Amino acid sequence: MRLLIVEDEPGIALVIEDVAIDAGFEITGTAGDMSEALELGSAADIAIIDVRLGDGITGPSIARALFSEFGIGVVYFTVNPGLTEDPEGRAVVTKPASPDRIVDALSMAAKNARARTHRVASGHTFH
């Protein structure tokens, strides 16, 4: 499963990358803002997104854009889970997080992405 990391702190992005690679995910790129996320989004199946980026764009805004444009599943990564109110019911990993918690959330997002792809490929629609 191909993962996009949307995180503006390089050290945190590197930790996520290492954990994800060890768990068998392919990293398609790391984005620090909305424009980079949209540039890299077409290559990813799922994304892990920091909820509060330095450019002021919120993680839920990026998540909606990535899902709308590419159908990408999302995991939020945040210090403040109260900022993740999103009708899509995405997974939330609270910082600091153990590697196991990160992998569990990414695995669930990957499972959901595979199920979504299967429904679309088999002609079923989803809302």
From TrEMBL:
Gene3D superfamilies in the record? 3.40.50.2300
Classification via InterPro entries: CheY-like_superfamily (IPR011006), Sig_transdc_resp-reg_receiver (IPR001789)
Say yes or no: keyword Phosphoprotein present. yes
| UniProt KW keywords | Phosphoprotein, Plasmid
Classification via PROSITE patterns: RESPONSE_REGULATORY (PS50110)
Q: Which residues form the Response regulatory domain?
A: 2-110
Q: Which domain of life is it from?
A: Bacteria
Q: Does the keyword Phosphoprotein apply?
A: yes
Q: Where is the PTM 4-aspartylphosphate found along the chain?
A: 50
- The identity of this protein, by name, is Response regulator
The source organism is: Rhizobium indigoferae
